[in-house]
Structure formats: C-alpha cells, structure tokens
Design brief:
By secondary structure, the chain is α+β, with helices and mostly antiparallel strands. It is built from 27 helices and 23 strands. Strands 4-1-7-6-5 form a 5-stranded antiparallel β-sheet, sandwiched between helices.
Length: 843
Amino acid sequence: MNLPPIISFISLKSKWPVIWLVVAYVISGKLRTLLAIDPGYAAPLFLPAGIAVAAVFLGGMRMLPGVFAGAAILNLWVGLDAPDPVYWRVAAGAILIALASTLQAGVGGLVFRRLAERNDLTQGTARPSLLTVLLLTPLICLIGSSLAVSALWAIGSIESTSVLTNGFYWWTGDMLGVVVMFPLALTTLSGPRKQCSKRAFTISLPVLLVLVSGLVGLYFMQNAALNNAQLRHADEFGKQSQKIRLRIEQRLSAYEQVLRGLRGLEAASNSLTRQQFNAYVSALNLGQHYPGFQVVGYAPWVSQQNAAGLAKSIHQSGFPAFEIHPPGNRAQYAPIVYLEPFSDRNLRAFGYDMYAEPIRRAAMDQARDINQVVMSGKVRLVQENGQQEQSGVLMFLPEYHHGKVPKTIQERRLQLTGWVYAAFRMNDLMNGLLSDQQDDFGLAIFDGTTPAAEDLLFQSDAARSEANKAVFDYTRTLEIAHRTWTIQIVSLPAFDQQLDTRSVDLIRFGGLGTTLLLALMVWQLASGRERALKLAENMTREMKQKKQQLVEAQRIAHVGSWERDLREGALDWSDELYQILALDPQAAGSIHAQLLRRVHPDDRRMVTEAFQRLEQDGIPFHLEHRLLLPGDVVKYVRQTGEQLIDDEGVALKIIGTLQDITPQKQAQAAVERLAHYDTLTQLPNRSLFFDRLRMALIQSKRNKTALALFYMDLDGFKQVNDSLGHRAGDLLLIAVAKRLTQTVRASDTVARLGGDEFTVILPDLSRPEDAIKVAENIIQSIGQPFMIEARDVEIGISIGIAQCLEKRLTEDELVQLADQAMYEAKQAGKNTYRVRGGGNPPH
C-alpha cells in the first residue's frame, strides 16, 4: 500500500526526498553514538527513529527504502569503527537493524496516517489526537528495540547479560527520538512551501542547534566524568597492588625470622642433633603458620678431607645409604644433613651439595660474607620429580664457630660452619596471597629487574590469560633478602567491571533531560516569537522604570551608590553620587581617586584605611566623615561598603553607598545648641554652665590653682523692661552678654542662668586678687550707657564672688557662696561686688 504524500510539494517521481532522508538519518544517527551505552549499540536518545516515522507519515510508504538505506549505512559505519570488527557480524547486524527500523517506521507512519485521516494532526486544535500519538509511541518503539536487540544477541554481537539493558535503552532512545522529531517535523514541513521554509529557519534550525550542541556538550561532559571515574578506579587498583606487594614482603620477612631462629638454636647447642632439629621445626608448625615452606634444613661447611668422615658419621646414625651428591671431587661441600619435613620428595634433597650448583653457591657466598639472609635466584629444586614442577628459590643464613659473628669478611670465611636454609616452591609460597582478590587481580613474579619470560618465578592462572589485555597493570621491583624481584599485577575483568559509572549515568541522563528541556524551551520561544518580543519589550520597559525609580529614590534620599570590580578595576557611580561630590560625570570619570580627593584631609586616612581593609580582608565599613568640596564647602556624609564574593570565596567586587547627611548634622547641631546655649544671648545655659564649672573644679584641684565664680544680677533691668518693653529688655540682655564676653578672657566662661542673672567662671587664677580686678572691669563696662532702640539706657550690675582656694568646694557650694555674696552686694547699695570664700591661695 503506497499512501500519497501529505506534503504537497513532494514529487512522487523525485528521488531527492529519499536521498535527504538517508543523509539526515546517517548524520543524526552518528550523533547518537556519542551517547552509546556500553556494552552494545543502544543510546538514550535516537533522533533517526523520529525522522523515519515522520518521513513515512509525511511522504508515504515510498520513503521506506530511504529508512532502510540510512539504517544500513549508519550501522555499517558504526560497526566498522569498532575495534577488531568481525565483518560478517557487522554486515549481518546492519541488515537486521535496518529491517527492524524500517518495519517500525512503516508501522508508526501508517498508524499516525490513519489517525490523521480522522483528525488533522497538522492543526493546533487536534490535541486529543496528539495525546494519542504520545501514548502510542512507546508501543510502536517496542518493534525496533525488541527485534534489533534480539537479532544482535543471536549473532553474538552483544552478551546475553546485556540484552535487557540494551533493549531498555534502545526502546527509550527510539521513543524519545519519535517524541522529539515527529512533532518538530510536522511543525516544519506541514503547510505551504513558503511557510515551511520560514519555519525551518525560525523553529527547526534553532531547536536542532540546541539538540546538536547539547549532545556534543554532553558527549564531552560524560567523557570527562568517565575519565575521572577511571582515574579513581586506577587509583584504587594502585592501592590494592601496593597492599599485595606489602603482603609479599611481610610473608617473606616472617620466613627470614624462622631461619634466624634456627641459627639461634644451632648457636645455643654445642652439638645440634637431628632429634633436636626435628623437635624445634615441628614445634613451629610450619604448614599452618608459614604456608609455602617446602623444606627447612641445615648444610654444614665441609672440606674435601672431612667429607668422608661426615658421611661415615651419618651412616652410623642410621642412614647407611647417605651420600653426598652430585658426585665428584670438590674442595668444599655443603651437603644437606638436616631437613624437615624429612619425608616424601624432600628425601631426594638429603645429602645434596648445594654449593655445587652456581646459583645456590652465589647466594650462599653472599650470605656468608654479609652475615644476612640472602635469597637465591630461580632454581629447579632437587625435590622436583617432573610432575607439576614449580620454580624454586632458597633462603640462606650462615652460621659461624661458637655462634659468634666475625667482624671481617676474611674471618667470616675462615670461621664458617654451615648454613641454615629454606627452600620454596613458588606456587606453594604464593598460595593464598591474593585470598578473596584472586578474581580481581592477576599476579606474576620475575627474578631480576625485568619481566622476562625465562625469569618467571610465579604467575597466577588468571594472569596468564589476561596479561596482554588487562586494563590496569602494576610493575614494580621488590628487594627480598638482598635479591631483586619484579612483581607484575594486572586487573582482571571482575575488577574492571567494578568501575563506578554512576556519575557518568547521572551526567548522561541529566544532560539529556536538560538538552530536551532546552530544546522544548527554544521551540516554545521560536513558535511564539511575537509573544517573546512583546515580553522582552515589557521587561525592558519595566527595567528602565525601576532604574529611573531607583535614581529618583537616591535623589530624594541624597544617597549615591558606587560599585568597583576587583578583577577589572572599573568603578561605576550613580548619578546622585556625582551630585553629592559636585563632579561633572563627563569630565570627572568614574575613578576611585576622585572620591578620595573629595574626602576632607583630616578624614582621608580613616577612609583610605577602611577601603583597604574592605578590598584586602573583606571587612565592611560604616563611616561618617566630611567632604571638602570646591569653594571650601564642607559636607557631612555617611558611607558604607561591603564585599561580594562567589561560591568559592573569591572576592568579585565591592559595593557601597554614600549619603549626604549635612542637613541632619546641621539639625543635630541646632538641637545640641538649643540644649546647651541660651537662645537669646547665645551664651551657655544653666546645663552647660554646671558642666563647665564641674570640669573647672576638677582642673583646679589637679593643678592646685585658684578658681573664682561670679554670680551677677543686673541693677535697673526691671525698670527698662517695664518702661521700654520686652523687646528692649531682650536687646539689652544681648548687649550685656556681648560686653561681658569682651571683658573676660577667652578661657573664661560667661553663662546666663535665666532672667537677668549671669555667671562667669574664672579658672587658673594666679592670685585671688585677679578676680577683684575682673569684677571692677565688669562693673565699669556695664556702667557705660547702652544704645537700645535709639535711646541711651543705663544700668548697673551687682557681683557676688566665690573663691575656691585651699578649701575645696563642690559646684553647688560654690554657686551658693557666690549667690550669697551677690545679695550682699545688692544690700551694700548695688553696682558693686562682694567676696565669699576663705583660706589662703594654694601653694
């Protein structure tokens, strides 16, 4: 059944749509390999599945050959890119997958076409049908995933253990591919040709760019995560290899101690008997506590002259068949006379002259000369019988006369009595060393510094098959009893499969989900371009309004703001900050130096240090300081600053505000003046008077100087106030205050307590008589006529003087004395003074 194409401009005779389908299938499919799930072929997003279904839906069944060709080419490409491809499997797999993909695309396109006949899927009103498409897609995608994965398993391309995993990912990838590409293809290709071209550039192209960019980025991210996981796995392999190496060292170190114990036994016994040797070794229970020992024994150092006597003594002790072998005349012999266990294949070593063999002799000579346990090179033990033979090594420890170790090499060679030794079959020695790790690691040990095949001492069974294809390997040299071994540890598949890829999966699926969401967002934005533009215009207008509101708020509050980028050094100021600093934005430039130059010189150091602490240590500041502007204009400002840091604690910028608080400062100064100064005469009031009097008394006591207090009342003031009015009275009080201030010293305090009562504090008097002179000057000054409202006004003044000499008084007592003295002056006829207080001037 060949359905006609839905797309009106597709020619039934043209082959270009099919060719473009093949190209799109192969290119989009190659992107899928970036996300392929190991092991196998499946990916969590397979866009060609959606392209194929959409192609059949829009172009009819004639598009199926393009689906088959695209799937076959794609899978041939992927299969041939794999390492060591099996060509028949690659070809068979490509054909089988292409058949499954074609069948799935045909069924999907046919089903969706049947739905389209009842409800136009290309129209936005067909939401129920689109929902049906989404519901049917999972069922349709079971066709390709089940057939393709089963076919790949059947030809051996994937393991049976990964069939379900690959099937799930294959089904998920196809389903998401159809969900993404099918609606996108419908949106782009349905309708007139001109609209299709426009939609291709305004909708499809942005969405595809997001998808491709996201998939490429996801590829690199998951590779980075995989590399990190592999690095962690390699580190774990190294740690475990170090532990295996340490276990080898510890095991052989323990065996050295056994030899040292045997030498101690020989030294403690004047004549070590076979029974003593047997009892000692039996007590060690070597088979249980020291696995791997083949034999432990003793070989005396015997000259050619004494060899016959040694053999004779052993014959007499019950071993008539004993003989030193291999036969031959040699200057020196080291035959094995004691060995345990003394049974089975070990009997073949009884009487063996180890010194006759070059490798053993080299180790024995070295042990003799350095008085240390020395390991031999690789040898064939005499115990071997040709069946299941193993490489062998021996350990030697020398013994000397009387158990004493000579100091020099020459003496050691002369006083040598023999060697205690141990022989090991390497497979038995290493048995159990890997314990529960034998499935994870393969171990090989070589005699010498290079892993040569002829020097192989031991190789675990798993290491033989995995040595050439191991993911990890560890090769190190090891010093064992003055012998260098090379150990080679390789990872086995069981260990390789322990690679933790959870982070990779998280990135893969999280990134895929993010990419799809971004693509959906781009689709929504692209399809609603006018709405997006309108939204952008509204947001721009709102941002401008908020910015203007912020500017107005700063202007009203006299608050300017600044921001300094610590990385680039750029300083940004608000408009109000330029106004506060009286700077031209065009001429001044937003530089930090401009602000500091406007700071008052007396406050500049404090502000500079605050900025330095903010930039270097991130310490915020809240300062009040002055600005000195052109024309000697002084402004008071309140400045704050703080530091902004990123998530890693790196300072990004410093921000701050600067508020003009000059009006507040002026108001505060006015309030403080009202609280401490008389509003009419501007002289200190009663509160400030008592504060200064208290300080003057403290200073007088500390400096031991005289102090005088004048309590004064104007004579005739009431008549002036009553006759000329309160205004004239006020003007007279102001004039009196001015004359009093001019008559006394600058360090003296003139105060008005209320009405026509005034006081004067005279501190630091050299002589008590100086106060009398000041009083006389005041009386003379006040006695001069005052010009009040074009009239001459004459008044007098009565002064009470309280002096504080040796007898120290409180401020209340001093005021009381001055008040009493003033009344005495009033009673004495006014316009005069009287003195209260006693004692002599302080010394």
